[in-house]
Amino acid sequence: MPSSDTVSRQRAFGGMLGIALLLFALVYRFYPELLYLHPATPVRDAGNAAANAIAGAPLGFDRRPDRSDSGQINAGPPLSLAPEQVIAAERLAQLGGAKSGAETPQVKALLDRAERARRAGRVTGTDSAAAYFLDVLKLAPHDATAQAGLDALADRLASDAGSALDAGDSDAALANINALRQIPDTSADVARLLQRLALLQKVRPLLVAAAERSKLGDSTTPAGSSALDLYRQVLGIDPRNSVARRGLERIQRGLLDRTLSAVAQDDFATAGSVLAQAAAILPGSQQLQNVQGQIEGLRQQRAQTLLTRANSAIDAGDTALAQRLAQQAQSISADAPGLADLARRLRDARLYASYKPGQLFADNFLDTSGSAPAMVVIPAGSFEMGARDGSSGFRSTEAPQHEVRFATGFALSRSEITVGQFRQFVRATGYVTDSERLGGANIYDDASGRMHDDTHASWRDDYQGRPAAADLPVINVSWNDAEAYVHWLSQVTGKAYRLPSEAEYEYAMRGGTSSAYWWGNASPARVVENLAGSRDHSPTGRSWANAFKGYGDGYWGPAPVMHFQPNPFGLYDIDGNVSEWTADCWHDNYVRAPRDGTAWINPGCTQHVVRGGSWASSPEQDRSAYRIDASAATRSARVGFRVVRQL
């Protein structure tokens, strides 16, 4: 518990503090000027006068930017983001709530008259708000309400003058500037506004001329004196001139409208040209960005519509229409999604009838169940056909070596035609083959190790004359029989089938290689085809005298198709199993041979070219360049065929 001395001291201190507060309150009430700070020269605070008035701060303590007698610049009030018009309006609205520190009846009466004059619109003059505010300040130099009122009036006049200048109304601007002159401490604002007024009067003839040009309809011509050029001259003199700025906006808007009109008519070339003119007027304007976004959306939409139509045209086989639509789409949008895919489809359509190189397909029969043999799309390209003079195994019939170029691709059956596939043809047509009509074929005799004629052998038999399995390559068929088969295949599918040309066969057999065989220049290092290998043996133990050394595939005689490896183009048994008929007539060499890959045919010829090695061919006969002739009626256990489908 505190002692009595401590309590006495606390009571004495509290009493003294109370007396001090009472004295401060009396001085503040009856002698407020003793507490105010007085600058040498009162100035108007454009940014904080109204706020000071509301807070009760004396208006003489001004913090707006100004120069003191020493020449230093006062930093001024914090920056305000509100425009001058908003600030002025706020100050005028706040005057009713601002109260002077010590209003006398005379001051109060003057303030009331000032408020009535302000509401009546009498800003300056003898019976005006400004005059009454000045009278108040003569009686009470630090009256917050009067000072704030003058600041608000000055702000309003400066704002109205600025708005008039923005609108190009020099008369209204001058009237407001003259009124502003009557308010003290506004010389800086007046000077600034007069400078803008001088610029306005300087550019007024240009603005009038620009308006007249605009009325003629085309604001961009003639060059040098168009409305566009005149507005640009105005902005070069007065960069803040809003009339010229709005003029440029109108001209740009007109060009943008023309751009959209051209787009609506699918005239994207004109649209692009006009849009470039519009962009040069006010780069980055909001209306420009909006229209650019619209046009880009319409451009992409139109391009996609054309691409969809082009793809449909390709599906319908009309590549010419697809090409035209693709060009239109590219001219509209060079980077339209799907354009690159369409270009590939067009290329494939021209080269491969919409297929792709290496693609596997099979045509269905039109009126019956079933389908054609599986086909592989062979790519377009070129190769050196034949053999070089002096190369290993070279024969004069393989010369001269020459370039053959395929402008388009073609499809070749993946394997040799099988017994099952040929049987389907015979059953459907009742066709009688040459082996049946002419009496037999040439088959292999294992007892003697030689080929011999058998009057009973036909396409239904294997290489020894026994019934053949359906998956074996059909043999004992003549060139005439092969021709009959492809003619039937074309009828039942509605597509163009034929025997391959000699050039097509060698090109496909090589599979893009230039070596002696598609697998290289020597005996295969792996099992690739049904070839005559030194490790192969007949059922009675015979072996080949001239064979690939160290090679064996386990077959003596034809093997089921596609039992071994495909070549680089995806073709099976192309250089083994059985040799195959081609469409070409026999010629002793390649002098004057076609160089476009077509068959070399002489009407009425009876000798045709056989290509590719067989199960009984020597390594020399398996070379990609090797060729031999045979009569169109030849039937052999070593010869079959495969077909081409034109694309």
What does this structure look like?
There is one protein chain. By secondary structure, the protein is an alpha+beta fold. It folds into five domains: 4-30; 34-67 and 75-185, no CATH class; 201-283, no CATH class; 296-352; 375-645, paralog of FGE (formylglycine-generating enzyme). It has helices at residues 4-30, 49-55, 84-94, 105-120, 129-139, 144-167, 170-181, 187-215, 227-237, 242-264, 268-281, 286-315, 319-332, 339-352, 419-429, 434-438, 479-493, 502-510; strands spanning 360-361, 375-378, 381-385, 402-406, 410-413, 441-445, 450-454, 497-498, 579-585, 607-611, 627-631, 639-640, 644-645. Helix 3 packs antiparallel against helix 6 (144-167), helix 4 (105-120) packs antiparallel against helix 5 (129-139) and helix 12 runs parallel beside helix 14 (339-352). The longest helix has 30 residues, at 286-315.
